[in-house]
Protein: Ribose/xylose/arabinose/galactoside ABC transporter permease
Amino acid sequence: MNNSKTIKKSNNTLVMNLLKGRTLIVLSILVVFFSIASPTFLSAGSLLLIAKHVALYGILGIGMTYVIINGGIDLSVGAIVGLSGMIAGGLINEGLRMFGYTIYFSVPLIVLITIICGALIGIVNGLVITKFNVAPFIATLGMMYIARGFALLRSNGATFSNIVGKEGLGNTGFEVFGRNVGGIPVGAIILAIIAVIAAIVLKKTPFGWHILSIGGNEKAARLSGVKVKKVKIMVYMISGICAAIVGIITASQLVAAHPASGESWEMNAIAATVLGGTSMAGGVGTIGGTIIGAFVIGVINDGLVMCGVSEFWQMVIKGLVIIFAVVIDQFQRNLQAKMALQSRNENK
Structure:
């Protein structure tokens, strides 16, 4: 009887280890599959394109990871990407008109202004959620429409093209964010920097512990002295900043800003986050897992395009991936609870 229990416990442990490494396993399978299905998948040009897309999904995913670990959701990030690109593109091409004068800013200032706008949108999301007790899904859904509307209003639906600035105005150099350095996209370098900082903050600082504790048990966190509302607002602010950075990189890569940029990218961010092991129930998640999840989404998106799969089928497949990730997450949580109960019974 004891031998049977030992075997069962060993099997559960094996399954748990496989579940923890599921994203890396899926990524390996996808790489092998698309390498066989498309001869160009492993070419230098294709890998560079994948890296650029992974950088965008990864940065968005980092902000989303903080939000979901904290027990929330942010559906506005895709629209913030579009609005941020329009803010940056408009400042470069048209400047800022004030009191009959037009002011042109340097690229560093344009980047700072754009990031501040993203942060403010995130703060508004956080305030609506914490001060008025609006569900995160509803609050950020509303903000998604507001941000997308302002992006369209910024140019009456038109595109800001050729956003390279002019030497005489001192606003050149914006395209640097879309270039490669030593064969590596600048966006990927930015992702690496943000990922390292975000991982350290989440695992090594009191703020990170507060994020995790609120997602795990908000009531207990509040009773232990955590300023829940303040942390939630900051989490949405971080998500807004990440989305603004992605908007800047996207506009730089295209050398143009379009109000529809980032459309449905919130789904890519959520998918990358959940695939990376972040629990939709909150309290559990890692930045490293989200980065691997971003690679999975990037490989799926670009791999399907290279294989000539219809865009409509791509949407179906991404939807199935999200559902699969949530189901697996729930299965893992149930298995962990079961193993914990068995361990307690054995120790009695």
Notes: The domain at 23-330 is CATH 1.10.3470 (ABC transporter involved in vitamin B12 uptake, BtuC).
